């Protein structure tokens, strides 16, 4: 059981985790929390922006080896800072469940920098992660889109809409429901 599942399944643990100001999440299984399959370790996200230039209204789909959508980046604007770093403004990262191919978690960022070598996205601006069963907000965060893991920082708020239906990442079997 991952850290998030342990914290979320125990109300006192959730309060302690939030009180510390940060706790780890698995990005969609977060990108996020709902995908069960292994991440594509060799996949590289290509952002078609020349160094020093800014592009407005950029959409970058990311597909796996089978052509299924893994995630999609939508950015109001993006600027290539150097060979490996891209600054994203008003970015939304929509992740997809690989078993159902339906949209899963959504990560919303005001300003963030993505390292294209490591696929790590960092921000010190507010972050919002949402899915049909929860909304999480934080003062900042770091997300590894290759490993589908993330960490949120600062004042963290988690709202679970229906604990009986709340799903956590559970390995190869897919999402499981936390029992009450």
Structure write-up:
The chain is mainly β and 180 residues long. It has one domain (3-177): lipopolysaccharide transport protein A fold (Sandwich). It has 2 helices and 13 strands; from the N terminus they run H-H-E-E-E-E-E-E-E-E-E-E-E-E-E. The chain has helices at 3-9, 11-20, and strands spanning 23-26, 54-63, 69-80, 85-96, 103-115, 120-123, 127-131, 134-138, 140-144, 149-153, 157-160, 167-168, 176-177. Strands 1, 2, 3, 4, 5, 6, 7, 8, 9, 10 and 11 form an 11-stranded antiparallel sheet that branches. A two-stranded antiparallel ribbon has the order 12-13. Strand 5 and strand 6 (120-123) form a beta hairpin. Helix 1 (3-9) packs across helix 2. The radius of gyration is 16 Å and the shape is globular. It starts with a helix and ends with a strand. Residues 1-40 and 171-180 have low confidence and may be disordered.
